[in-house]
């Protein structure tokens, strides 16, 4: 991975939001605010086990799969499977 991510509580939220904005060409501030609120909620309520926050993100945001979600978490927040998905994502996006 060439990009250095900014992790807060194990999740690179601003980098993830930027990724989603670019992927879908989102320019609507309401949609961006909603993405941030989803991520804030997940950080507070969906971290009961490793990968649970990543599953929450991929389940709730259409078009975002688990590999994309895992890519923006620190390894400590992921199971081995989640870490492998993260590595695969960044290999594909070099």
What composes the largest sheet?
A: none
Counting DSSP E segments of at least 2 residues, the number of strands comes to: 0
Strand content: under 5%
Helix content: 55-70%
**SS summary, helix count:** 5
Evaluate the radius of gyration: 12 Å
Order of helices and strands: HHHHH
Q: Report, as a whole number of angstroms, the end-to-end distance.
A: 6 Å
Which regions contain 5 or more consecutive residues with pLDDT less than 50? none
Structural class: mainly alpha
Indicate the mean pLDDT.
93
Taken from the alpha-carbon principal axes, the silhouette is globular
Structure characterization notes:
With 94 residues, this protein is an all-alpha fold. It is built from five helices and no strands. Helix 1 (13-24) runs antiparallel to helix 2 and helix 2 (29-45) runs antiparallel to helix 3. The longest helix is centred in the middle third of the chain and has 17 residues, at 29-45. 22% of the residues are buried. The model has no long low-confidence stretch (mean pLDDT 93).
Any descriptors?
94 residues, mainly alpha, 60% helix
Short recap of the structure:
With 94 residues, the chain is mainly alpha-helical. Helix content is 60%, strand content 0%.
Topology:
Blueprint lengths: L12 H12 L4 H17 L6 H9 L5 H5 L9 H13 L2
Helix pairs in contact: 1-2, 2-3
